[in-house]
């Protein structure tokens, strides 16, 4: 199972997604405060209770991404299902970015102050996960093609 390169790709996706889950991904800077977006929601530096936004949808997506990748590692005998789950994971990563930007926009509107957006290094990890998921899908399809060609020879 781990001998297959796509299993390694999916394992790396799982590890990077767990890192994204527990790391701050973006921030909004005002003249006096920095608001970091992480699994805790928006946290301010210096501590301030000015921005309360429920970020559970973002957290749910961030939990689903490593879960789907990890489960698909063990479905190596069901390659079609593995491809479908990897495509779902690819879409979930896209949705993660859209939801993250929606929360940043919502927070910016709620603040009502001149602000600047920025992204931490963890915000680039889902893009790396997209590439790795794409490579895993190609590897799974390559295996499926090989199995079909061997079935034809029998």
- Alpha-carbon distance between the two ends: 24 Å
Helix tally equals 4
Helix content: 55-70%
CATH topology: Butyryl-CoA Dehydrogenase, subunit A, domain 3
CATH C-level label:
Mainly Alpha
| Mean pLDDT level | 88
Number of strand segments: 4
Give the strand order of the largest sheet, numbering strands 1, 2, ... along the chain.
3-2-1-4
Q: What number of domains?
A: 1
Q: What sort of overall outline do the alpha carbons produce when their principal axes are compared?
A: elongated
Reported for the largest beta sheet, the result is: 4 strands, antiparallel
* Structural class computed from helices and strand pairing: alpha+beta
Query: Which spans have pLDDT < 50 for at least 5 consecutive residues?
Result: none
Strand content: 5-15%
The protein's oligomeric status is single chain
Secondary-structure element pattern, one letter each: HEEEHHEH
Key features?
Butyryl-CoA Dehydrogenase, subunit A, domain 3; alpha+beta; 4 helices; four-stranded antiparallel β-sheet; 64% helix; 154 residues
Description:
This protein has helices at 5-22, 56-73, 79-111, 125-153; strands at 26-29, 34-38, 41-45, 116-119. With 154 residues, it is α+β, with helices and mostly antiparallel strands. The protein has a four-stranded antiparallel sheet, with helices on one face. The longest helix is centred in the middle third of the chain and has 33 residues, at 79-111. The two termini are 24 Å apart.
């Amino acid at each position: 199972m781990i001998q297959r390169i796509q299993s390694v790709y999916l394992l790396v996706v799982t590890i990077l997604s767990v890192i994204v889950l527990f790391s701050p991904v973006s921030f909004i800077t005002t003249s006096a405060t920095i608001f970091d977006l992480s699994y805790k929601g928006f946290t301010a530096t210096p501590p301030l209770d000015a921005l309360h936004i429920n970020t559970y949808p973002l957290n749910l997506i961030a939990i689903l991404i490593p879960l789907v990748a990890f489960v698909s590692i063990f479905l190596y005998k069901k390659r079609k299902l593995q491809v479908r789950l990897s495509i779902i994971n690819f879409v979930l990563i896209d949705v993660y970015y859209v939801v993250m930007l929606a929360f940043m926009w919502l927070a910016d509107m709620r603040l009502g102050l001149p602000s600047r957006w920025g992204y931490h290094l963890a915000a680039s990890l889902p893009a790396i996960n997209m590439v790795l998921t794409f490579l895993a899908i190609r590897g799974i399809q390559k295996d499926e093609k090989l199995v079909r060609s061997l079935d034809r020879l029998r």
